[in-house]
Amino acid sequence: MRYKLLGNTGLRVSELCLGTMTFGEEWGWGASREESRKIFEAFAEAGGNFIDTANLYTGGTSEKFTGEFLKGRREHFVLATKYTLNMSPDDPNGGGNHRKNLVQSLEASLKRLDTEYIDLLWAHAYDALTPVEETMRALDDAVRAGKVLYVGISDAPAWIVSQANTLASLKGWSPFAALQIQYGLADRTPERDLLPMAESLNLTVTPWGVLGGGVLSGKYKSPKDRPAGARYAKDEDWAAVNVTERNVRIAEAADAVAKESGRSASQVALAWVRQRPFGEIVPILGARTLAQLKDNLGCLDLSLVPPQLDALDAVSRVDLGFPHDFLVRARQYIYGKTFPLIDGRR
Fold it and tell me: What's the CA gap between 205 and 26, in Å, rounded?
């Protein structure tokens, strides 16, 4: 395990992050306390120090287990959790990115995690009802109070993240250091704006859903294998919607590369994300068993060669859309014949 700097900070995080949404069995498909501890210990023994959880995960059990496993060695780990998602559905202020929910959610998370501070607090999702100014100022207040060290944002449009960090820079508030998004061979749409933005703003990217809800591990051979009625955070595979003809073809390509390399398809999918040219990328591992976690860790010493990368790119490529495709065609009108002669192009 090697380590990366988190965004434009001096914080060192492991090159893989352990996601703990699987800690707890309240949602019907997670890991028991015993299995969760085994997963945590295996990650720590491999050199992992970056742990990601959230207030809502398994109704708070994920945070409780994580806090329990950190006992006696809290300082060694970079602990990330999230607020925003509503744990009191009948309360209009029970969710969102406004100051009231931030304060209440943070205090509750600190108690469940049994810690005095959070290393990285994520806004879990874009809240269109709360002004960006309120969110950034409230997060900065949490940092100044010493309850949070760094802040990040998850599941938000690129223009919101850019606006937020520009505002923080102008006001002297704590900017987002990292961006959490869904990204992998099964969904490359973040390459249109989110990933170039993250590289430009020096945000570390922590992608979730890298295995496409299991489809890239070879779990599903056909869209007919999709479990019925899957819903986020409720059934065995919340991402079963990813089991499409296209993604099954991508899974077949990943499996072919895996057989050629003597590795698992999951390791290939993780290695592909780790080799993407968009700045610092730290994939989140979401294992439900110790065996899955150990297999995922195998991506650390896997480097895909150009022909393999080309094959995976060809089967998973997405159209960048306007204005990106248009600007490529317009180069001759913008630069004349000189574009190939210009060094230092961005």
Answer: 29
User: Which of the 8 DSSP states describes residue 23?
Assistant: B
Provide the residue type at 168 as one letter: A
Report residue 344 CA to chain centroid gap: 30
Read off the pLDDT of residues 117-139 as tens digits, 9 standing for 90 and up. Answer: 999 999 999 999 999 999 999 99
Helices 265-274 and 290-297: angle between axes, nearest 10 degrees: 50
Q: Which residue has the tokens 């923080």?
A: 168
Active site residues: 57
- Two tokens, residue 194: 């989110």
What's the rounded Cα separation, in Å, for the pair 191 and 313? 12
**Cα gap 3→47, rounded to integer Å:** 9
Question: Which residues, in sequence order, are CB contacts of 131 under 8 Å at separation 6+?
Answer: none
Q: How many contiguous H segments (helices) and E segments (strands) does the chain have?
A: 12, 10
Based on its alpha-carbon atoms, the radius of gyration of the chain, rounded to whole angstroms, reads 20
Cβ atoms of 124 and 155 within 8 Å: the answer is: yes
The identity of residue 332, as a single letter, is: Q
* Domains located in the chain, CATH noted: 3-321 (3.20.20.100)
Joined together, the tokens standing for residue 260 give 């050629």
Judge contact between 154 and 125, C-beta under 8 A: yes
The per-residue pLDDT for 232 is 44
Q: Model-level pTM? A: 0.92
